[in-house]
What we know:
The protein is mostly helical. The protein has helices spanning about 1-15, 55-70, 85-100, 120-130, 155-165, 175-185, 190, 210, 220-225, 230-250, and strands at about 35-40, 45, 55, 75-80, 110-115, 135-140, 170-175. β6, α5 (about 155-165) and β7 form a beta-alpha-beta unit.
Amino acid sequence: VLEDTYNDIQVMLDICTSPMGMVGNDYVSRSQSVPIYWCADDLVWSTNARLPRLGGGAFREMLATTYSSVTGSELEVTCYGKPRAIAYAYCEQQLALQASKLGWDPADMRTIAMVGDNLETDIIGANARGGRWMSVHVLSGIGHSPAARRTVSPGDDELDWLLRYPHSSPHYIAPTFDHFLREAMCFGEVMVTGNKTPYYGMPSPADLTGQYCFKPVSYTHLRAHETPEHLVCRLLLEKKKSKKKTNIHM
């Protein structure tokens, strides 16, 4: 494993320090020559091992440290995935898309539960996103991240903000994911979401449009792409809702 890690870091270091990322010449670039995009930045994750295992975030730490030692500059990385706002915004968009396909109004979604075992990614990310998000900490995984600090790339204002402001206290705790599902069905929405609190601190500096070219899709846009089957389903649900409202007024 160590040999693979050394080789992978060496290859990425060669690419980053070669002009235009083209390896094979005798020249070394004084600045990072190619952009790097990272999709999984968890420092540790849970497996069948008794102790947490190093994840993709640990490899980024190794690469960033090595790059800094070799070049004297900081490695610039654009990260996706938890706890970044882009991961939760994309999830919201996909949930709205699936809801509209089923004929449901996405605006009716009151709560979106982020169920995870990592306080430093899953829970902080949901708490930071706020709104309809509810953070649920399950104790069947790593429990907590032992990270004392994380390497912040130049210009990565979002990670710096995540490390400073949003709290890692979950809104709900359950032994396992299965326990949470059972408790949610038995106890009801009010009891399960009773500790969900909005975030009122420093606003997130994440620029989803400028940095990630992400544009939220409106419900009107989703309806414009409805199939005949989805349209019939939605109209039937709206008719059912209308009857309920009429009965209440009577």
